[in-house]
Each structure stands twice: as C-alpha cells, then as structure tokens.
C-alpha cells in the first residue's frame, strides 16, 4: 500500500517527463515574481486613518503566526508544522504538511503604537494606525 501513487500525479509526471527539468530550470529566476508561489493571499486597504491588512490563513493557529512592524515594513510570517498526532498516522496520500511563508508590505506612515491583530475563521486582520506625517524639510536662514 505504501508504494501507491495517485493516478493524476503519475500521469502528470509522465506527460512532460523529458522537458520538465529544463522548464523548471528556466522558470526558476522568475518564480519569485509570480503570485502563485506567494504562500498565502494578502490584501492591504487604506481605511483613512489606518491601514487594514488581511491575510487568508486557513488551518493556521495564533501560535504559528508572527506579525512585525519594523521601520514601516509590516511582515506576516507563518510557520506551520505537523503535530505529533499527525506524524503517527499512515497516510496513503497527503497534500498538507509543514510549510512556511512570509509576506510583507511597506506602509510609509505606519504608527508604531496602537497596532492590533485578530485571527478569526482563518482570516488574520491587522489594523495599523497612520501617524501624522512630519515635515522632513527644515528651512535654514542665511546670515
């Protein structure tokens, strides 16, 4: 039973067998640019006085998520690991497993204080208040 291979994976492997590795080699530099390999979907909304960032994280617990704001860059990192209960099972076919992903967005006027995050129904919602922009230009009088 352990040597069983689902038909769709076996057929897919044989379909492009001689050229699959060549295609993967030439696609590798562009893999980071595609949105399909992002790991999870994330939306950023400008809600006037704050930013609302939502991330779709089904099956992930609070302990597996790390949210960090560092000099205007909001990073959401997820590291999902299998539990000991799942490791003891004898799966014939399994698509879920251990994975990690990090997504980030730069919010130029994000305030450090007043951040809040909530995980509900597989959706992480992070509220980032905006700070009043400070003038970076100082006029100097000439004597």
From TrEMBL:
Family, per entry: Belongs to the small heat shock protein (HSP20) family.
PROSITE patterns, sorted: SHSP
Superkingdom: Bacteria
Name by which UniProt lists this protein: Hsp20/alpha crystallin family protein
SHSP domain mapped to chain residues: 31-143
């Amino acid at each position: 039973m352990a040597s069983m291979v689902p038909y769709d994976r076996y057929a897919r492997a044989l379909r492009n067998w001689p050229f699959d590795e060549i295609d993967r080699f030439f696609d590798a530099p562009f893999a980071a640019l595609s949105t399909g390999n992002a790991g999870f979907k994330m939306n950023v909304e400008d809600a006037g006085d704050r930013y609302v960032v939502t991330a779709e994280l089904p099956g992930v617990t609070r302990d597996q998520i790390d949210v960090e704001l560092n000099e205007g860059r909001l990073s959401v990192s997820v590291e999902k690991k299998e539990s000991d209960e799942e490791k003891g099972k004898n799966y014939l076919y399994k698509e879920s497993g251990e994975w990690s992903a990090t997504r980030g967005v730069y919010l130029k006027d994000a305030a450090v204080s007043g951040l809040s995050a909530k995980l509900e129904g597989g959706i992480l919602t992070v509220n980032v208040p905006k700070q009043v922009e400070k003038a970076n230009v100082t006029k100097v009088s000439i004597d």
